[in-house]
Amino acid sequence: MGEMVLGKFKEDIALVIIRPTMITSTLKHPFPGWIEGVRTVNSFVVGFGTGRLTCYPGDPQSIVDIIPADMVVNAMMVSMATHVDKTTHLIFHVGSSSSNPVPYHRVRDNIVRFFTRQPWVRKDGTPVLVRRPIQLPSRVAARIYMELLYFIPIRILGIVNAASCRHFDRIYLDLSKKANFLMRLVDLFTPYLFFNRIFDDMNAERLRNAAKEMSGDIENEISNFDPRSINWDDYLMHTHIPGLVKYSFKR
Fold first, then answer.
1. InterPro entries annotated for this entry (predicted)?
2. What is the DSSP code string of 151-216?
């Protein structure tokens, strides 16, 4: 609705709308791996790495449409530079699902591989030992898993806890907290985890071609936002996940 309002009242002002997909840590600038906060797919990285997540809901073949933050910034700068004197109204999808798609199972495998090799260390100095998570390929499978592993035991434990004058209060609260965390992830990210579509980025491709025409190697480096230049396995293992651990994990 906001885009429609802008389009209606822009008059002769150039209007460029950038629609990034799931934004991840920087690829290169200001330095590799920089990120603030925990959002979208990063919630699963944090949940698994800290031992709170033992399953991965989602279709393993679905495309995780991620794009590094600096590429989004580069796209914004190039779009402004190339449309400053025009009265156009253009929308650019800045993502990777069309040009360099990465399937969900590939992201999952890199997360498991990273924390198997470099486990997160708790406050008391003990490492969080992870194991390969259970894949829940459908919404129904996710609900059944949650019911059997968490909700039924929580209901039984709640009765026992009440009958024993809250003797099992700590176990009951810990299990409830883990279940609520997982259900919140499933509810929030179901539209992404079971989404089997890609976004058309033809306008972004035209913008990338315009960026290539800019003179100078430094200029081209700064204005790069081509996801085809990303090796996803290398980026996830050596840039994104280490950056997330460094800047967003909390003990």
1. FAR, FAR_C, FAR_NAD-bd, NAD(P)-bd_dom_sf
2. IHHHHHHHHHHHHTTSTTHHHHHHHHHHHHHHHHHHHHHHHHHT-------HHHHHHHHHHHTSSS
